[in-house]
Design a protein that fits this description.
Blueprint lengths: L1 H16 L4 H45 L8
Length: 74
């Protein structure tokens, strides 16, 4: 994620240092905003998947506690 922010920031920095038009700066700001929004969506998706994984682990451990530990008894 830091690489996405760094790349966008560098693009914005170079745009502000040069003789670029206001349109170019606006375009880069829009791209930076879109990149940030994409990063937030990916972070939210990651959090959701981590929560689902933890829920699966809890369900598995609860099921393991309820079921017999050995199924080979006759």
């Amino acid at each position: 994620m830091k690489k996405l922010y760094s790349l966008s920031f560098l693009l914005l920095l170079f745009a502000s240092c040069g003789d670029n038009s206001v349109k170019e700066k606006d375009k880069l700001l829009i791209e930076l905003n879109e990149t940030k929004q994409q990063a937030v969506r990916l972070q939210n998706k990651l959090k959701q998947l981590q929560d689902e994984l933890e829920n699966c682990r809890l369900n598995y451990s609860a099921t393991d506690e309820v079921s017999p530990t050995s199924t080979t008894s006759q």
